[in-house]
Structure formats: structure tokens, C-alpha cells
Amino acid sequence: MKSRMYFLVNQYILGIQAGIQAGHAAVELLNDYRDADPGLCPKKRLIDDWADNHKTFILLEGGYQQRMYDFVEDVLLPVNEIIPYATFKEEVDALNGALTAVAFVLPEYIYNCTVFDDGTAPLHYWHPETDHLAEFTQEERTLISELKKFRLKGG
């Protein structure tokens, strides 16, 4: 199954700095799971598969710092059993400890999901590993709907 690492980058971080802050968040995520056992931790398997086979970064315009905190608390924390994520805050001396980036790895069946015209995610999807129809949890549906509200990071 394909996967991608997504980033919400603070709206005040522009240009090459957006990529640098995303890189910091990526390292935080990789460090958080460095010692996890892939046999016991599905998130570690997802991260390892991404790092070994896909390596795609998608940088999104994260908006204000508070919007990024809200996304972590309201969207990523409820799916933390299956979706690995990490945050990066700059040093207090540099940017007063501002949250500059959030990194998270998503499997293809999440990021390729199309939402309905009203912005809601479907109830079911075709699971690539089992080759059967599977049901999204409400938390996964929220993740999909909220993810689609962000746009690619510009200049």
C-alpha cells in the first residue's frame, strides 16, 4: 500500500523555510518511532514502508498556529492508534516556541479518498490489503474531511 508524509506548515513560514520546518517535523516523527517494534506497532510499519518505498512529502498550508493545534487535538489524536504524527516547535530564542509544522504519515486509502460535495467522507472504501469492502471509522472520516480543507503550501 502506498503512503505519503503530509505536513501542515504554519502560514507565516514561507519559501525554503517551509521545507526546512517540514523536515524538522519529519525527523521528530522518525525519532518518535525509532525504537518501536514493527511487529507490535502498525504505525512503525507504516512509517518504515513510507521511508523504504515512497518518500513522498506533501506540504499543506496549515494556517495559523491555533488551527494546527486544533487539527492535532481534534483530528490526529483520535486516530493516533493508526496514524503516526509529530509536531515541531521552533526554539523560544528563534520564534518564541511557535508551532511551525505538523507531520503525519497517511496510507493511500485515506489520502486518495474523495469527499462528497458537502465535504463529508464516504462510509466505506476498498481495502487494498484485504481486497474487501471496509468501513471507515468516524474518526477516519473526520480526518479525510478535514484534510481536504487544506491546500498545497505556496511560495
General description of the model:
The protein is α+β, with helices and mostly antiparallel strands and 155 residues long. It has a domain at 3-107: Bit1. Helices cover 39% and strands 24% of the residues. Strands 2-1-4-3 form a four-stranded mixed beta sheet. It has a two-stranded antiparallel ribbon with strand order 5-6. The N and C termini lie far apart (31 Å). 26% of the residues are buried. The model has no long low-confidence stretch (mean pLDDT 96).
Key terms for this structure?
single chain; 155 residues; alpha+beta; Bit1; four-stranded mixed beta sheet; two-stranded antiparallel sheet; 6 helices; 39% helix; globular
Task: Report the biggest beta sheet as strand number plus sense, adding barrel if it closes.
Answer: 4 strands, mixed
N-to-C SSE string, H for helix and E for strand: EHHEHEHEHEEH
The CATH superfamily of the domain at 3-107 turns out to be: Bit1
Low-pLDDT runs of 5+ residues are: none
What is the overall silhouette? Answer: globular
The helix content, as a percent range, equals: 25-40%
Strand composition percent: 15-25%
CATH classification, class level of the domain at 3-107? Alpha Beta
For the largest sheet, list the strands in their spatial order: 2-1-4-3
On the 0-100 scale, what is the average pLDDT? 96
> Could you say what the CATH topology of the domain at 3-107 is called?
Bit1
CATH architect. name of the domain at 3-107: 3-Layer(aba) Sandwich
Instruction: Report how far apart the termini are.
Output: 31 Å
Number of strands: 6
Cα gyration radius (Å): 15 Å
Q: Which structural category fits the helices and strands?
A: alpha+beta
Number of helices: 6
